Each structure stands twice: as C-alpha cells, then as structure tokens.
Protein 1
Amino acid sequence: MKLSAYPAFTATAFTSRLAYRNQVWSGVFGELVATFAFIAVWTAAFVGRGTVDGVTLPDMVTYVLIAGPLLNWNTTRYIREVGDAIRTGDVTTFLLKPLHYPALLFFNQLGNNAFEQLTITLPVAIIVAFTVGLLPPASLAHGLLFVAYWVVSWGIMFLIATLTAMLAFWLLTAFALDWFLRGIMAVASGAIVPLWFMPAPLAAVLGYLPFAWVSYYPSAVYLGKLDLPAAGLHLAIGCVWLAALAGVLTWLWSRMRHRLIVQGG
Amino acid sequence: MSPIISASGVGKTFRQLKRQSGFGGAIRSLFSRDYSEIRAVDGVSFAIEPGEAVDYLGPNGAGKSTMIKMITGILTPSAGSLSVLGREPHANRMVNAREIGVVFGQRSQLWWDLPVRDSYDLNRHIYDIPEARFADNLAFLTAMLDMAPYLDRPVRQLSLGQRMRAEIALALLHDPKILFLDEPTIGLDVVAKDAVRRFLSEVNKQRGTTIILTTHDLVDIEEICPRLIMVDDGKLLFDGELKRLRATLGSRRRLILEFATDPGPLALATATLAADEGATKHFLLENETVSLLDVLGELGRGHGLKDVKLEEPDIEEVIRTFYQNKPKLAAAL
Ligand SMILES: Nc1ncnc2c1ncn2[C@@H]1O[C@H](COP(=O)(O)OP(=O)(O)O)[C@@H](O)[C@H]1O
Ligand SMILES: [Mg+2]
C-alpha cells in the first residue's frame, strides 16, 4: 500500500463517527459540565487573590480549556477497539493485507480525534470564549510554537494509547489497562492541576515524563509561562520522547507480529 | 504447469503453557515453564494446480484453519515446506498478500459502521486497484452476488447471508490468483449456502481463480469442488476426487422398507439392518451387484410390506463410512 493511500483510513474513521453523530450532543454536554466545574473550582480558589505564583484566574480558565477538552485526548474507545482486535485475533486479518498495521492505526485515530476536535472541542471552546472569556496566546511566536506542541501532544498520546492497547496482548485485558492509564494521565499530564501548582519534587519528576507533553507543556507555552528558548528546548525534548515511544512501538509490534505468526492469534 | 500451491510434509506444533486449575494453580503457572504440545497439522503434503477448486474437509479441530493460516503467510510452519505462487508465504507476507484473497467465516473484514461500498473503496486504496478495473469488478460482483439492494447499507444492518456475500466480494476485488475461504458457509441457511456455493463455482470456472475452501459441513462439498482433501487430527486422510472416494469405499445404497405393522426382527444376507423403527426398517445393501429383486426375493411374501424405497448413498453417508473405516483405509491407501 502506498503511503499516499493511508489518509483513506482517516476519512473512513471520520465518516464512521458520523454514524454515531447523536453521541456528539452528550459529548459536548459532558465536556461543558466538566469544563465549567473546573472553572468554578479555580474561581473559588482565586477569590480575594489577583495572582497565585504569578498565575491569574483568566490564565487558569484558558488552561482548563486547553489542557482539558483540547488536549485531553479521548482514547478509551480506541484502546478498547485495538485491545479487542488483538485479544480476539482479528488483528490477523490486517496481517493478510499489504499494509502496516501501526500506520493504519495512526491514520485511523487521526480521523477519530479530528472528528472529536471539530464536533466537541470547537463548540465547547466557542461557548467558553463567549461566556467566561479566553486569553489569546502570549505572543505570536508562542502561538506558533503551540501549534507544534499540539501536534506533539497528539502524537505522544497516540503512541501511549497504542502501547497500552498492545500490552493487552500479553496481559489479556485492555479494560484494566485503560483505567490505569487514565489514572496516570489525570495526574501526570497536568490535565487537571498544572505542574506549577504541584509540590516541587513531584513537578520536577513529572516534568521529564512524556505525559507532561500531552497537556501541561502545550498549555504552559500558549500562556507564555515558558519563555521562547525554554519553549523551544522543551519542544525538542518532546520530539525526543515522540521518537523514543515510536521506537518502542515498532519494537513491540515486531515482537507481537512474530509471536502471532509463530504461536497463532 | 507447476503447482500454484505445494505443501510437503507440512506440520505445525503449538506450544501451550500448561495451566493449572484454581487460584494457586494460576499463580504457579505464571512461573511454570511446563508446556504441552498440540500437533495441529502433522506431515501434510499436497499440490494444487492453477485453476483448481479444492475442498479441505475435516471435523472441528482437524487443523484446517491452521493450514489456511500457514498457506496465507500469517503462521509459520514448524516442519516441512510450503510454496505459494513460487514463494514461501510467511517470508513474503506483503507480496503474497496482493495475490491472494482470504475470507474467514468467523471474522469480518468489512468496516462495521460503514456502508458496504466504503469498505470496497478502502480496499481499492489498500491494493492500488486501478479505477477502471475496480469499477468493472464491482459491477460484476454486485450483479453476480445480487448485492445492489444493500451496497449502500451499513454492514451492521446486513443479514449473515448478505454479509458473507459482501465478504466474498471484498476478497475478490483485487483479482487475487487464489481465493481462500475458511468455513464460508458457517451459520448460513440452506438458500444462502446455495447462493455462495453457486457463485464460487462460477468464479472458479469463469475467471480461473484457484479456490481452496475449508469446511466441516459435508453438504458443501459436491457443489463446488470436485477435488477433496480430507484431514483429521492434523493428518491427511484422502486426496482425490469425490467419485474416487465413493468408489474406494463402495457405495452402500440404503433400502427403506415400510410395513403395515411391525413384522418383528428381520435378518437378511443381502443387506444389513441400519435402523429399526418398528414398522419402518432401514437396510444397507451389501454391494453394487445386489439388486432390489434379490433383497425382496430373500425377504419373501407375507410380511405385510407396504412400500419400498431405494436411496443412493448421500455424501454424508459416504463420509461417515469413511471416518468409521479410517484405520482400515489409512492402511490401504
Ligand atoms: N494458537 C493456537 N495455540 C494453541 N493451539 C491451537 C492454536 N490454534 C489452533 N490450535 C489447536 O490446533 C488444533 C487445530 O485447530 P484448527 O486449525 O483451528 O482446526 P479446524 O479449523 O480444523 O477446526 C486444535 O486442537 C486447536 O485447539
Ligand atoms: Mg477452523
């Protein structure tokens, strides 16, 4: 299969989701409730205080939207589907085709997430912008860097989710792994509490783990909490993580394929 | 012509970790290196010529799916050698994949939430099928398989029979040289089975596509494939035409005698009692030369015989006899 043909999977995933378009309403509603709940919590925390550690309430409202609906990628469905395909052996039907399975997953999940960003994140962002108000990026350069961070965030989350689903092949349960991952992501990605409000030793450790590139660093860069050299440096570190995780995935997939063709699906 | 598929002494042994029962057993098996071996395929050899249609028949667990997986390159043989289109299948997975089509009766390759047509379009990308060729094939398959009414319906709304036809079309869109079907008629009703069988035979004759079909369903056989490969317990039992199988086994015709009232036990020299339902008795004729008259002559008058029916042996009968006589035959063949 030619590389130029893979985007067909993106389109397929996108149109598949249209079949369940009534789920969009509950998705938007759920995200809105969660977003306004977090905004309420931060509003309460900021009562009587203009800034906390150099962070303002409008900063936090914008952080909630970016780290939450925008970058807290929904992978539950994806991990379940891939985990099931692996557990039931359906994955062997993909081995029968002239294609690279992880690449198929990549383009497929791109379609899924594009669908969610357009139908759920965008409306939620518009509603929050017109009710509570959102800040623009700290500078044009920060805004441009943020776009690169956004891509890295998606890439890292795709790799972590795919690795999690593949572990189901050895551990035989994608469900428990998904809960485990969600627990880790809730803390380590900074989706709920930014690293700057965490105890210093914890923040220091989490600041080096790949999860922080999913929600925390992109949001912090958007808000200008990292100066441009620091933002550039962390983008480079994020890319190193991306390459490392891609390497692990390639290795794990080749081991899995080997096991599949020796021991059967 | 050289064979399109050849298997020589092919074997597959699965190693399975021995699991012990209970919680303690589960913990122990985590550390155990105790394996049991399952010989799913055991020294099977055959050669298939281009354009042939072959039935790969055997009861559940006989090793049919394992064989199909090895020929299609998604499982490595643990013994012997395999060649498909001149290549070793598992070492050439990508190249091989372009030239074969595979249908698994128990696994769908269609995209569940999308209209059937969209899965076909995706295959056009996967296999780089030229636009015109794709349109031709789709038109041919749609007409032959009568798929026009549901081409635009999502797969999840199709009946099993419709879905299976759609799966077969999917596997044929890229003009594969060989089509493998693993239990394609499983779960289908008689009408749907018939449609599938007639279509496959048509594709084999018209397009010259080599077809290998596995089944444990005896009724599948006669219609599609004149050649039969029978396996059991991983081993090859018979390879040849159905006619030869019949001849080898001798056809035992079935004679059904219906009496007005139960005549009591009956024993004959020319036929063996197969089933006794009181007033209705089934006999199997001993051999080709015994005629109906011989039996009736032996039976004589005075039993209140009401009706007589003579049936040709059906294939189930042939194969049942075959499995019953397996040890004897294995020695003779
Ligand atoms: N991946 C596997 N691991 C262990 N044993 C297997 C595996 N796949 C099949 N078997 C065993 O091999 C034998 C043949 O299986 P299979 O080829 O699926 O039979 P069939 O398709 O004829 O019903 C069975 O005993 C089955 O349990
Ligand atoms: Mg099988």
Note: The interface with chain B takes residues 1-2, 5-6, 8-9, 12, 15-16, 19-20, 89-90, 92-93, 95-99, 260-265 of chain A (CB under 8 Å).
Protein 2
Amino acid sequence: MQVYADNAATTKMSKKSFETTVSYMENEYGNPSSLYTIGQKAQEALVSARESIAGNLGCEPREITFTSGGSEADNQAIVSAAEIGIKKGKKHIISTEFEHHAVLHTLDKLKKRGFEITLLPVHSDGLVRVGELSKAIRPDTVLVTIMFANNEIGTLQPIAEIGKLCKEKGVIFHTDAVQAVGHVKVNVKELNIDMLSMSAHKFHGPKGAGLLYARKGILLSSIIEGGAQERGKRAGTENVPAIVGMAAAFTESCENMDANYQYVKGLRDILIDELSKIPHSKINGSVEKRLPGNVNICFEGIEGESLLLLLDDKGVSASSGSACTSGSLDPSHVLLALGLPHEIAHGSLRLSLSEYNTEEEVKHIIKVVPEVVEYLRSMSPVWKDLKEGRKEYVI
Amino acid sequence: MLYSDKVMDHFRNPRNMGTIDDADGIGEVGNAKCGDIMKMYLKIDRGIITDVKFNTFGCGSAIATSSMATEMIKGKSVKEALMLSNKAVVEALDGLPAQKIHCSVLAEEAVKAAIDNYYEKNPESFREDLFRLEDDEDSCSSGCGGCSGCGGF
Ligand SMILES: Cc1ncc(COP(=O)(O)O)c(C=O)c1O
Ligand SMILES: [Zn+2]
C-alpha cells in the first residue's frame, strides 16, 4: 500500500485545479499584457482568479500580488516592511524562533542592514504568548511577523489576538499562512492581518504559485524588477496557468473546509491516539491548537532518517526533523525551539494528512510505524543503555 | 536516490548487527547530539577478529557504514583492521553523499575504539605498532566536533 502522508511538504493537485491549469497551458496561453483576444482572455482569467481569491480571504482584489509561492511572498512582505521602517526610522522587527527559513533568513539579511530582530520563544507547546509579544513591542518596532500555523508541528498561533494588539500599537502585522490557508478559516480583515503569504501547492494547487496580500495603504517594494505586471510590484509575465489553478484549488478548499477539517482531524486523532501508545514517545506541540492534519511525534532512542527510509520501504511517505533531513548535523530549529534535547529531536516523525487520505491508509501507518520503531530500537546502542538503566529516559 | 544501491542494501539488511556478551573489545563513538552513535563489539583470537557485531543509532548511512565496516574487518587480523580507513568504507559502498562522509569517519573510529579497548584489556598484545592512519583526504567537514575528522578528538 502506498500512503502519501507528507501533505505539509506539498500536496497532490486536485482534479479541478489540474484541469484548469492544463487548459490554460493548452488553450488560453496568451500573454495577459497582449492586446489581442487570447492575451485578453488570459488577462480576464487573472482578474477573476484575483477576485475569487480575494473573496475567500476577505480582502479587495487589488490588495493581492501574485508571486512564485510562499517564499517569495515572505521575502517581499518583510523587505517591504523594512523599507517602510527605514523611512520612519524604525528598525526593530519581532518574529518567532520557529518561523520558516523564508522568514528567518530574510530577517538575517536585515540584521546586516542594521535592523534589530527579536525572536519570541514558542514554549514547549509551540505557541507564542501574546503577553510576551506585547512586552517586546517598542516604539521603534515596525513589523511583527508570526506564522499562522507552523509547518513542522502544525501549531496554530493566536492570530486574532496578535492582529488586534498590532493594530492597537500601530505595528505592521505579517503572517506566513502558507500552512493554514485552505485548511482553517482565514479572513484577513476579521483577524486584522496587514500582510499574509500563501502558496498554492499546500492546498492541492500547483507548485510555483502563491501570493502576498497587503492591506491597502501598505506600500510594497518590488524585489523583482522588470515589467509593470502586478501594478509594478512584481515584474515578470504572470504564471497564468498556475494562478488560475491556485484559484480553483482555493475555492474548492474553502467550499469544503468544514467537512475536510472534521474528516482529516478524525483520521489525525486516530494516528495520535495509536502512535502515542508506543512507549517513550511524545507528541510535539499543542494537540488542541493545531492544524487538523498534523502529527509530529518523537521516539526516544532512534534517529529520524533511518525511520523515514524504512517507512518508505513500507509505502509510507513522511518527513522528519532529524539532522539528516536538514543537511546539517543539527536537528530542526523548530523542535529545538520547543526545548527538546538534540537526541530526542533527531528521532522525530511528521505525518501530515489531507482529505485524500483514507482510513485504510491510517491503519497501515498504525501497523508499520511501531514495527519500524521497534526494529530500529533493537539495533540502537542508545536504546540498550536506556533499557538496561545506564541512561535515564527523557520522554 | 540519495544513496547508492550498496548503501541501501547494507541499510536494509545490515550484516553483523547485534552485540557480543563476552566481547574482547568494545568501542563506542559519536554522540546523540550530532545524531550518530556506533558501538562495535569484537571477538579476537590470537590476533584475528573472529567475530564482530555492531549497534548503531543514526541515519541510513550510519547504519550502512557500520555494517560495511564490520564486514571488512571480520576474519582479518587486528593489524589489518587498524588500517581500515573511512575512505575504503566509502568506496566499498560505492560512495556516500558529501554530508554523510561524517558517518564513515565514525565507522572507522568505532573499529579503532574497539581495538583500543582490546589493547587496554590485553596490554601484552600491544607489542605491535599501532598504525595510526592520518589520511584526512576524505574526512568529515561537518564540524560536529564529534569525530576526529572534524578536528575534534
Ligand atoms: C510555513 C511555510 N512558509 C513558506 C513556505 C515556502 O513556500 P513555497 O514552497 O511556496 O515557496 C513553506 C513551504 O515549504 C511553508 O511551510
Ligand atoms: Zn563529524
């Protein structure tokens, strides 16, 4: 049995999104900047995609700038806020320790340009404390950028309270909502979000399309120079097929959100209940304030990459925050931010479900994960030390 | 694929996995912080490694290099085993990704640590010169500080 359980990494395109995308590659392939009919048809498609997405996000169409995805939107949001800060003499930005690298690395660059960055802790439950944010905001704070939902542990941040606080204090609030939109309700006006990043491939849309929402009044700086597309805020011929595919996928996700949420959460809760029975395991991050599809669990005494390779042999595609999947010797910064010791963080497993997963698939996961964990423990010198009392269990 | 077929074969079907209760030499290297720990058990009879087993906590290549290293020293003399280099292990596995060379360094060191332990317990066998191989060509550049390849210890 093949089980794709890595929907936080990317998703399979929905049939509707796929067909829409392909038809714009095959038939309506004109350049939206061209005056003739097929160009104008592409232009119209962009207009209606923008309108439909704006409707689902609760904003105006002109507040949306299409980008190549979540990373670009994060980069542009932060760089734009920084430019605004420079003009106002405000060079302090607040974020969190467990943001996506698209945010953290952009902030690192700003540090070199004289910005001061405060990274809030996310505690063992993977949640930011609004009180701590409030204390961290200074007169020279220009931007607060806090992700809506974390990509590894799925924890949902108190976005409404953060939005309200930032509004009161007159600070720009950006949220990387790449993991959240299409899965939980996001209305930028109700939540007082000034800027938001999203990416189509996380909700059954195509890869390489995303957008940056920026509230009217927030001046965006372009990070790609060239033509006058996207009102001069993002040069480059629009990726029309992917953008219309994104709009189709987003509409579908929003229409079915409640049903999908209940269904996926049901499957997810079975996984959490069953996998938690494995001795010396621990679910990472709050279970209550969490995306419906996310399971992140650590198993003491084993290492994540070998776990993933063996699961792959048994047909399960999953992910891990172990060092080996990060390309360095350090395990994921997200798990370390939760205060987990390195040796525990190395043994993490992330399973992320979507509405395309079935109960049979979940049963398969529940069958194979304990087998693989037990096998790896049987060859682990760390596990032997724990079992024979030469070392204390951490979890 | 990230790994060669050989690596995957040794990862999926590790040779000599396990422990030896009455081992003549035991060596443990690495640390859980950097994600790999290898423990090597040797049975030595008149200078010949008659049996070898390993336990490993680590990634796919840590398990595969442990397995390959045990296969390469089994039945060999202690002197020959001391000459095992991480490079030879990597070659025998048809190569490893650059960031995984670290694991092969650990495998070489696990063998040496087990032999050191054997010499400690059997000082009379320590007559032979210790061949300390300092070929750093293919050494670990990860900077983990957990293996000599990093210039650690
Ligand atoms: C939270 C978060 N932000 C940003 C990104 C980057 O999005 P994209 O792959 O569209 O650039 C991802 C996905 O990898 C993500 O999970
Ligand atoms: Zn090293």
Note: The first helix of chain B runs from residue 5 to 12.
